[in-house]
Protein 1
Amino acid sequence: MITPQWTAFLRKSIATACVVLIGLSAATQAQAQPVFPSAKWAVATEDKQESGWSSERFKLADKYAASIRSDAYLVIHRGRLVHAYGDITQPMNLASIRKSVLSILYGIHVDRGNINLNESLADLNITDKGGLSDTERTATVRQLLQARSGVYHPAAYETAEAKKERPARGSHAPGQYWYYNNWDFNTLGTIFQQKTGKSVYQAFKAELADPLQLEDFRYPEDTELVYERASDHPAYVMKLSARDLARIGLLVSRRGQWQGKEIVSSKWLQESTTSYSTVGQGWNGYGYMWWVPQRAFPFWRHSANQLAFAVGTGGQFMLIDPERDIVVVHRVDNGRPWFMRHEVTGEQFAGLAARIFAAASDEARRVPPP
């Protein structure tokens, strides 16, 4: 027999259960909501439930970073800063990481229909000092993004090693051969301005720096066009701090989404971080101005095209794992006088990355199901 007391008890129990379930649902939804930095990074406490990453193992990573003379590095997991070493606020020359940044800007304007990757240099009336051959002028914007233009004209901001390794003019037709070519990358800056009506720097400020709320970037102080007599197309040099570069890395890790808004399409990011060339004896591939680790980072990577990797001379590195939502940024201050400069090699960065991964929480190590 159901008494009035029993009925009241059931009602109270059901009401309590509903409150608990609503609370759990709200907590689950809050946990599922992706974290983005606003004016400041959210900092996760190491060795506590909030992070799960090991501060003791990070000490080993820091010790190694000191031994290779890293100036700064940081680790972002799920939108939170879980570890920082050195001065992560100092703007430093991105070196060739600038190219990966331009790749994102290209994606924004390809998405808008402002840039057609299949247009050729002839279509765009692009030439250079001394002219280009008819064959060279058949190279497309896509081939320049892939460093497969076949245009081996002298370029601004080339290293001595690049000048030495540059193939002879006319030795490869467009699309046939991969060569890490500053002419391609610089000319993409010229094409970008021609097609969008904005300089690389104007677009960077309006379309990345402002919406991502970069903390340390100063416009125009941290930008510089570098011209050389050899070419009409300047290099677009810029400085960013480690923590500002990490925001760009997080945008890529989040497949172009930022606080509920699409900055660049996931389609573009997938396309641009897919390998179209195998280089370095198979250790890396190359996409649209992004390196794509193949055999590199075997302790971290579990599938092809999983990681996106940006590299700049002297020891500028950014490793992005969208599957685990992890971003690692490494910097060396290349603004010192030449006699005080030092280099962190890719092999040394891989050693640091291995120590960082050893500090990862169980959650960070797991690979989510596809």
Note: The domain at 38-90+264-370 is CATH 3.30.450 (Beta-Lactamase).
Protein 2
Amino acid sequence: MDLKQLRTFNAVMDSGRVSAAARRVGLTQPAVSKIVQGLEADVGVPLFRREKGKLTPTPEAYYLRNIATNVIEQINDAKQFLRDYGQQRAGDLKVLSIPGPSLFFLPDIISRFVTAENAVNVSLLSWSTAQVVNWIGNHQNGIGLAEWFEPHEAVKLHTIAMPCYCALAAGHRLAHKSVLTPQDLADEQLSLIITDHALNGDIQRAFADAGCSAHVRMHADLFVPMFTIIARTGIVGIVDPINKRNHELYSAGRSDIVFRPFQPTIRLRLSVISPAHQPLSYLASQFMDELVAELEQMT
């Protein structure tokens, strides 16, 4: 049996006449008759009694009708689901990330894929880089965003390097400058990422190379909470571009903090991670393209 046979059979069951069934399915009467006869040959029992041009279904026909209807409905549902999936109106999206991007940056991108009208289901999990890599490598599932790491055979990497910025209160004495250097910040109190983070070492080396000392007043592993302190004090933060974007999103355009490029350029390297041995779904592929495009705009 094939789908064409089942659709034609159902049309005959509904109409009781070959002529009406032919109009419904867009075939000629001889074609419909041939399909019904072929179906009867396939199943090995008569499906209709032919009396004066009218087809009367046998009990076996009613049994087959129930099965045919279920099959057709399932195929129609599958076609609609895949059509919705292809148009980003349905599907499951699993996103695993280090904590910082999970605060505002990733939810902003995810919100473009989730609406009240569609059936996209999302999981957003905040893990360490090692956990993100291990999950995607072992399960071959999900899109990850993590700090750069050595290549891993079970995952694919798209690594992007983005410059860091100085964050300072809008009324700070250095806010008028277009770029800030270690010399500019030599007498300022600073807020930096925690000491075991690679960016901290890069910043300290930049100050040392410039013959300056970095006077660090505050450390944080999540920088978003520091923005309130920066806005209310003279402390200057040296932050990665993801946290700059986080502030832009949650501050909704408020101008209490300004950002200036830090020179020499110090870059945060993030990797977009995907399974190496399992193709992405269409939805996940579209999300990854959007994520990469957002990150590349920050370079």
Note: The radius of gyration is 31 Å.
Protein 3
Amino acid sequence: MLSSSSSILTLMVEPDTQGLRLDKFLALMVPEISRTRLQELIDKGYVRLNGEVLQTASLKVKEGQSIEMTVPPSVEAIPQPEDIPLEILYEDEDIIVINKPAGMVVHPAPGNYQGTLVNALLNHCGESLSGINGVKRPGIVHRLDKETSGLLVAAKNDKAHKSLSHQLSTRDMGRVYQAIVWGMLFPQEGVIEGAIGRDPRNRKRMAIREGGRFARTHYKVLTFFGKTASLVECRLETGRTHQIRVHLTAKNHPLLGDSVYGKTPKVIPEPLKEYLKENWTPGRQALHAKELRFIHPSSKEELHFQIDLPEDMRNLINMLNSPQ
């Protein structure tokens, strides 16, 4: 028998989502639940169509279907080590620098207690990580959204955590992102300022609002893809939740793929529309943390890391560059 605190979601397949794989459809419709958790719910029989259990993630959904998903109650738990592969760019006794893939949640939260970066770090670093920055977010100094890829540094001891956190708060930690936004962004270089706080109309979103925390983003357009989209470099002066996504949306140029802050324009080239439907992961905003710079907590040496755009964004750029 289901717990009274379980939730049952009824998800309708609309024309713009028909033909998607079941796992991609669920990821688009319920972006707050990790892909790992969604796969677990599919495997355990919590997803049904007309009472029939759907346990095949690759099943294509059809327009008009009403898919029911039961989400068992979240259980507060101490993160457990999990053997999850990590792309490690640098590691010593103080810090570890990771290239986080899109789709991975950084630290456990309701609905995402497994498959997170913290679970992977606990397995990789062992006991050295426990207790730093609390039980639920051991070692975490800053975070990336689930569907943002790129560079992230974690601390392996209290001294390193204190140093990196101080650099973050004093804005001495340098972070550069690349994003693909809809439309031609003008002016081509500038600064976006706007205090960011929780959206009073939707608690899952952030918004520029009175009483929010000061936020400033420096941006520069690197490439125009005709009138369809722009490749933009963003340098963070502050680090608020969803800052780049909120600021660029405020300029009416939301990130491509961002299902929370922006939607696909009604008029885009048909080949691009088909490409996104077949190849782009639903909910994946085109945002990548490309550069990270900070002072090493022990050696005091300035470290600078860069990582190329991931394959999905490179392929998208190739598509945008091709004749439409």
Note: The radius of gyration is 20 Å.
